[in-house]
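User: Can you help me understand a structure? I only have the sequence.
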Amino acid sequence: MKPAFSICVYCGSRVGAEPRFATAAADVGRWIGRHGGQLVYGGGNNGLMGVMADAALDAGARVVGVIPHSMVEREWAKRDCTELHIVENMHQRKSLMAEHADAFLALPGGIGTFEEFFEAWTWKQLGFHRKPVGLFDLGGYYQPLLQFLQQSVHSGFMSEWQMDLLTIDAELEPLLHKLVETARTSPRGVDTSEI
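Assistant: Let's start by predicting it. Here is the structure, written out as tokens:
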């Protein structure tokens, strides 16, 4: 059966210093499952990634993992995903994740999460896709980043319309609802697999 929607989620391969990070990741997985959706993520078994994927599977969601071969060799892959795609490199990973997604969401994470989030946002501003891009600002985690981005606007390197391409919320369920509803009404845009 085709899922009602498909959300690509970027998040940490560590659990973070506070229990609320893992709680939020599990909440995302359960929400996707309860609403008949599909989780697309980086295919890892560690950190918030593994917590979220386990919760999604337990809640009945389809889980599509995409992971480079080198990470599989290090035994980082979550082998019980509904679909596990093993690719050659990070470029293929991100492209395939984007291809399978109706929307993108960044949870708290580190450098890999930031890079994936910024790429999805950049692709949107360039018109490579028209899918919603969300940022979950759990407990103000992303406030310093958002302040820096506003500094980029004030300094003339970005415009407010670029900031307006993001859906940002500190509350998880309203954010997920917004992303799914926006995805249902947005054209999919250019196929990112051709980038």
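Now, to help you interpret it: The longest strand covers residues 62-68. The helical segments are 19-34, 47-58, 69-73, 90-99, 111-126, 143-154, 160-163, 172-185. Let me know which part you'd like to focus on.
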